[in-house]
Amino acid sequence: MRVVALAGGVGGAKLVDGLARCVSPDRLTVIVNTGDDFRHMGLYIAPDLDTVCYTLAGMANPETGWGREGETWTVMSELARLGGPTWFRLGDRDLATHLERTRRLQEGESLSQIVSAFCRAWGIMVKVLPMSDDPVATIVITRQDEELGFQDYFVAQRCEPEVKAFRFEGVSTARPAPGVLDALSEANLVIICPSNPWVSIGPILAVPGIREMISRKPVVAVSPLIGGQALKGPAAKMFREMGWQPSPLAVAHYYSGLLQGLVIDVSDIEWAEEIRQLGIIPEITDIVMHNVQDRVRLAKEVMAFGRKIVETLTL
Amino acid sequence: MRVVALAGGVGGAKLVDGLARCVSPDRLTVIVNTGDDFRHMGLYIAPDLDTVCYTLAGMANPETGWGREGETWTVMSELARLGGPTWFRLGDRDLATHLERTRRLQEGESLSQIVSAFCRAWGIMVKVLPMSDDPVATIVITRQDEELGFQDYFVAQRCEPEVKAFRFEGVSTARPAPGVLDALSEANLVIICPSNPWVSIGPILAVPGIREMISRKPVVAVSPLIGGQALKGPAAKMFREMGWQPSPLAVAHYYSGLLQGLVIDVSDIEWAEEIRQLGIIPEITDIVMHNVQDRVRLAKEVMAFGRKIVETLTL
After folding, report:
1. Where is the chain membrane-spanning (chains A, B) (predicted)?
2. Any idea of the CA torsion for B10, B13, B18, B24, to the nearest 10 degrees?
């Protein structure tokens, strides 16, 4: 079975790591959000691509959910001494990624070529693709109609401004990165990882051609919300501010028309029936991933659930 | 007595440090070569400015003659892993300087404003000025008429190509940085530090207006050559390839029309008479600076020698 996973940051990266450990690498493609990408100090920074790749390479920082394990902060502390910007934390190891990516972009390499080269260097066997090689920038529109770049909202303002809407700048003319539509067209199953629907999966689905291709495929998602909360990040807060009670049902609504199955946490069993009434099959399990064993267990369950759905659809 | 010192890299930085320790900071201005400056991985790198500032701040690496003391190489080793360029060694501490300088340039600050801010942050009291805020690039023209950017020649090709000429790209339209001509006009004495005449002092003198202003002042130089050799760098090799026997006499010829006095090493006493015949007063002492004590001793001797020359000229 050929699988495509859509992923954003931490939660998505963990499930992708689980999938990579139980699916043959030539049968798994990961499409990653680049709407969070931005320029900082002249460097091209791709937070979700890095989180996914660092996690797959076993180099992610398990404490922070971003950046590198065993990170050091020499550059940052010297930068602080010079009065430079320190709101976006750049670790020494992490910085090498940004420097080399920026250099290669300047030399004319595409983001997907660079990701591919980095994956080779880091020993990542599954195919990781940015959603697009063209620039797409997630803009958060606040209740006060202020437009904030995503990292400004997310890091500098700690997700505090109330959200009214999102805009994915550049997405209407962005093309799916080479390999994205092929992987989707060959896929037997699409897995939407437990990433923020509004700002991690939303931008991927907004790239012209991607949503349409996915809508022809069996799709299962894993809820990014548990008991009304996101394990990390502002997903629950965003659902609330967008007028939805944060729950797996809201997730099901968000993905309606696209999903055949939704994996929800045992603590959310109360929502199963309403999800089923939307024509989406709920699968109930423990979706919290504390460690690598959890990632593998959940990935196996998601794969089994997906297989069941594929078989049902085939019948 | 108001003093202006012209300096390039290591040797110049050492004498400047000695001068800074025995001249009142409001009476010492250092004008630094920027012809070696270049862009690498998108970063604006200013090797001579950094060597001078790191040395003045007591942060220079005494082993290498460039970069920072206690330097770490985390970024570099991760960069190597990604197949990035490693020919130009970027230490973690050093990198912060380049990142912040590049960021400020992008924001519209001038190089001299940035140097001034960095000096404040690093506790440097004497005034350090780049020769120009405008881009000037030292180009090495080889025997085979190949044109090499300075860092390509100096670092990547280890000064191996034979030199035929030098060209300072952009110098004809470069303006002295703010403060340079004022400092020179107010100076009672100009000291040419023991830096490479061809590629460290030459570019400074080539900036329109600087040589003319210096030619009206008492000037003493410290020979960058000792016993036919440079302590560091390709100065001797360059003199040879340009058709001069490398010696303090060649240095005196190089600066002819500009110098009143030249400080040479005791081991070069044989050249004293010929230097005198050029109308330049030789001062013989130990010009090797092994440690900070040597820097201070030489600086004091240079100042005393300069004072004597100023008095002679005044009489």
Report:
1. none
2. 180
Which among A75, A81, A84 is the nearest to B75, CB-wise? A75
Angle of CA points A115, A117, A119, to nearest 5°: 65
Q: How far is A42 from chain B (nearest CA, A)?
A: 7
Long-range contacts, stretch B151-160, CB < 8 angstroms, 24+ apart: B151/B36, B151/B38, B151/B40, B151/B45, B151/B47, B151/B88, B154/B36, B154/B234, B155/B87, B155/B88, B156/B87, B156/B88, B159/B233, B159/B234, B159/B237
Tokens 């240079």: give the residue: B302
Residues of B in contact with A50 (CB under 8 A): none
Confirm or reject contact between B85 and chain A (CB < 8 A): yes
DSSP type of residue A174: P
CB contact at 8 A, B258 and B238: no
* Residue B126 neighbours by CB under 8 Å, 6+ apart: B16, B19, B20, B23, B25, B28, B29, B30, B56
pLDDT above 90: residue A314: no
A254 — contact with chain B (CB < 8 Å)?
no
pLDDT tens digit sequence for A1-49? 999 999 998 999 999 999 999 999 999 999 999 999 999 999 999 999 9
C-alpha distance from B14 to closest chain A C-alpha (Å): 23
Round to whole Å and give the CA distance between A169 and B16.
Answer: 52
The percent of residues above 70 in pLDDT, for chain B, comes to: 100
The domain spans of chain B are: 3-136+170-314
Residue (of A194, A163, A191, A207) closest to A264 by Cα position = A194
- Substitution target in B45, B77, B100 with the highest count of A β-carbons within 10 Å is B100
Judged by a CB distance cut-off of 8 A, whether residue B82 touches chain A is yes
Q: What is the ipTM of this complex?
A: 0.88
Instruction: Tell me which chain A residues have a C-beta less than 8 angstroms from the C-beta of B118.
Output: 82
Of A76, A79, A121, the CB nearest to B82: A121
Q: What angle do CA A81, A84, A90 make, to 5 degrees?
A: 95
Residue with tokens 């437990």: A194
Cβ within 8 Å of A, B 178-207: none
Q: Is B141 left (phi over 0), alpha (psi -120 to 50) or beta?
A: beta
Residues 6+ apart with CB under 8 A from A29: A2, A3, A4, A5, A126, A127, A128, A129, A179, A183, A187
Query: pLDDT of B52-77, one tens digit each?
Result: 999 999 999 988 878 999 999 999 99
Cβ of B97 under 8 Å from any chain A Cβ?
Answer: yes
Say yes or no: A97 contacts chain B, CB-CB below 8 A: yes
Nearest CA in chain B to A81: B121
Residues 6+ apart with CB under 8 A from B101: B43, B44, B46, B111, B114, B118
Given a contact cutoff of 8 angstroms between Cβ atoms, the answer to whether A98 and A42 are in contact is no
Tokens of A124: 């990542």
Considering the four listed CATH numbers 3.40.50.10680, 3.40.1370.10, 3.40.630.30, 3.50.50.60, the one that applies to the domain covering B3-136+170-314 is 3.40.50.10680
